[in-house]
């Protein structure tokens, strides 16, 4: 079995490649920058553009299953899936999002190229076996949103202090993806992946403060001020607007949680606190603004 991974150097693809390689599964990745991939020994790295299926013919040789990252394939998801099916690929696992069916104006990730809905539709409409992963907010999103403010002081300013999320550890998503690529028990399912608890922005900031050894405080500001802060940090205005609309919705009720990670992997999903401890250095880094890397 050869598995092809797109988005292999990202926050889901990199641990996914690691899980597959550790299991002894032959892995091939496609990347625009193979010289900078820094992937485990034995991984077959192919220089190609996942958003340009015309460059992928060789990469799909002898491939049995593919992992499709919407940001990597961009608007070419349909063409990519069609080519994979034509070349005899049997299975596709696609990274979508828990809000994939929401109004696009409340999906910030669309404004940085995550066409989750289109990628999921292309996969589920194909003749291949398929699994769709629908994770909620990536825990790592808080690095892009808060690291610069953490570097400047102990107050995190943002909108809707009571906005709730069930942030998920990216490694849990990657491990579920590795399972779906190799096992048959979740075929044809849209897996709603969440962290184990609904947390407000205030609670998440307190947890981050504990992880970095500093008492942090969340200060709620009006949406228009939050917009100014985000744009000043380098976030695109459309992204910021969609994020604020999403947060307004999230302030109305606790975030939905599921037990899918536990059901698939046979262990509990990682907590936000354990994620924060593991990413302490990244939370303290202030090298510049980074657009959040996952769902929503």
Give the SSE map.
Blueprint: E1 3-5, H1 13-22, E2 27-31, E3 44-47, E4 65-68, H2 70-73, H3 77-86, E5 91-95, H4 116-124, E6 129-135, H5 141-152, E7 155-158, E8 164-165, H6 170-182, E9 190-193, E10 199-200, H7 201-212, E11 217-220, H8 223-232, H9 237-250, H10 260-265, H11 272-278, H12 280-284
Parallel strand pairs: 1-2, 1-4, 2-3, 4-5, 5-6, 6-9, 7-11
Antiparallel strand pairs: 8-10
Q: What features would you describe in this structure?
A:
Helix 1 packs across helix 6, helix 3 packs parallel to helix 4 and helix 8 packs antiparallel against helix 9. The chain is globular, with a radius of gyration of 19 Å. The protein starts with a strand and ends in a 12-residue tail after the last helix. By secondary structure, the protein is of the alpha/beta class. It folds into two domains: 133 residues, 3-Layer(aba) Sandwich (Rossmann fold), CATH 3.40.50.720; 116 residues, Rossmann fold (3-Layer(aba) Sandwich), CATH 3.40.50. Strands 3-2-1-4-5-6-9 form a seven-stranded parallel β-sheet, sandwiched between helices. Strand 1, helix 1 and strand 2 form a beta-alpha-beta unit.
For the biggest sheet, the summary is: 7 strands, parallel
Helix-and-strand structural type: alpha/beta
Q: Give the N-terminus to C-terminus distance in angstroms.
A: 33 Å
Shape: globular
Quickly name the level 1 CATH class of the largest domain. Alpha Beta
Q: So, CATH architecture of the largest domain?
A: 3-Layer(aba) Sandwich
Number of helices: 12
Output the helix-strand order.
EHEEEHHEHEHEEHEEHEHHHHH
CATH superfamily annotation of the largest domain: NAD(P)-binding Rossmann-like Domain
């Amino acid at each position: 079995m050869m598995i092809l991974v797109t988005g292999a150097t990202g926050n889901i693809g990199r641990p996914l490649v690691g899980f597959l390689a550790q299991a002894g599964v032959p892995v091939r990745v496609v990347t625009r920058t193979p010289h900078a991939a820094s992937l485990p020994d034995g991984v077959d790295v192919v220089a190609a553009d996942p958003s340009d299926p015309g460059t992928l013919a060789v990469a799909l040789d002898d491939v049995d299953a593919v992992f499709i990252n919407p940001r990597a394939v961009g608007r070419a998801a349909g063409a990519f899936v069609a080519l994979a099916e034509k070349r005899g690929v049997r299975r596709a696992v696609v990274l979508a999002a828990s809000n994939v069916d929401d109004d696009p104006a409340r999906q910030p990730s669309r404004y940085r190229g995550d066409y989750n809905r289109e990628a999921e539709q292309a996969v589920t409409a194909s003749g291949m076996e398929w699994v769709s992963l629908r994770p909620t907010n990536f825990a790592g999103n808080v690095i892009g949103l808060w690291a610069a403010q953490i570097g400047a002081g102990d107050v995190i300013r943002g909108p809707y202090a009571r906005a709730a999320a069930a942030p998920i550890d990216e490694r849990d998503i990657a491990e579920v993806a590795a399972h779906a690529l190799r096992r048959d028990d979740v075929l044809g399912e849209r897996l709603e992946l969440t962290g184990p608890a609904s947390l407000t922005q205030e609670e998440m900031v307190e947890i981050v403060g504990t992880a970095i050894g500093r008492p942090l405080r969340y200060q709620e500001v009006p949406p228009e001020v939050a917009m100014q802060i985000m744009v000043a940090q380098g976030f695109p205005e459309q992204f910021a607007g969609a994020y604020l609309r999403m947060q307004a919705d999230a302030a109305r009720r606790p975030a939905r949680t599921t037990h899918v990670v536990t059901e698939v992997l046979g262990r509990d999903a990682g907590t936000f606190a354990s994620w924060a401890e593991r990413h302490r250095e990244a939370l303290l880094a202030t090298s510049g603004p980074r657009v959040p890397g996952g769902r929503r």
